[in-house]
Amino acid sequence: MNLSTLAKRNKIQLKLRKAMNLVNPIGQTLDGKYHIERELGKGGMGSVYRAKHVHLKSTHAVKIISPEVVQSDPSLLVRFTQEAILVASVQHPNVVSVTDFGIEVADTLYLVMEYIDGISLEEMLRQDGALTPARAFEVLKPMAMGVSAAHKLGITHRDLKPLNVMLRRGAPLAQAVKVLDFGLAKIKNTESFSSLILAKTTNLLGSPHYMPPEQWDNENVDARSDIYSIGVILYRMLTGHLPFDGSSMPNIMFQHMQAAVPAFAAFDLPPAPAIEAVLQRALEKQQDKRFQTLDEMLSAYEQALVSTREHPFVDPNSKTVSFREESFPPLHAAPTQAWSAADGKSYNLPYLDSNQNEILATYFNQPKPTGAEINEQLEQRFIDAQGRAEEARTKVSQADKLAEEFNEAQRAAETAR
Which of 30, 253, 291, 375 makes an SS bond possible with 297, Cβ 3.0 to 4.6 Å? Predict the structure, then answer.
């Protein structure tokens, strides 16, 4: 056997060994750079793993595309490269950033993303159920802003659902919400009904509940298709239910294409005309009748939210909206002076009891600070806020350090074993 033949055989054997390792890559080093630590999840295109860069020691999420997906579509390699470069251009605080991609062996592709320590919106909704309109807006706004940033670059997500929205642990919702998997839906062959039937074995059954009518036929999919999907997510956040559900995929498809959006009353929820009107428009069957941009949808929902403050949602079994006195903090310190409804306008709102109406009156009737007093209070509040922010940063830094020490101890223990 000559040297050339031996070299070719060794190269083939090396590729085979790599391919076999990637069947279960945990403990392996991908492309000489990313040490795979553990599996985070599995989807229709492959699996996602937590990995550490061997040189930079930074933590990442690595999505390894299943070889079966690549083998079924010869053009996927080219489209994967094009889409990965395009998606990496989306730089927004509410979008999971793509930092690297590559090909380990001929039919194994991988995508390296920002690692999010947290839970998916799907997990949150399963744990908490329906959200209040205001709470739902806290999730909707950053999610929509991230997707809108991609739309402005001509990128459509095509697979928006609660599983593709992450919530970073320990951060305010405005900063915690992260949208992931941009472009991966487009990389897939098609999202037509026939391809979804074939995908039954690859965990894609979550997507049909969020797919707009035009996407079932893969026709004219654009930014307004994402608006429809976000409308479904918002509907579920507000009601705890999907607007279109069924026991079979043909049934779900039919509802998306033909059925009217169920009113809140269908789930024994109090009617909310302004909010339901926003959902109705977001979930229009025809794209031209939907909101044309996410900015437009956000503005409409925010206006609807204002109207609900005048007509609060109440427990159907109780006519009382409960709140604590500390919900209305004093505008300035005045420990020696008492204020009551007798000092000004009184309140007699039908959905509050007499004590709560008194608390409301006390808050709104106390004198408002003016001039230098306001500036002094604002300055003190700013100083206090700075102190709290610095304290929070210190705690985060300490937590990161402890976590790293814990990981190092685990690694040392594994090495010792």
Answer: 291
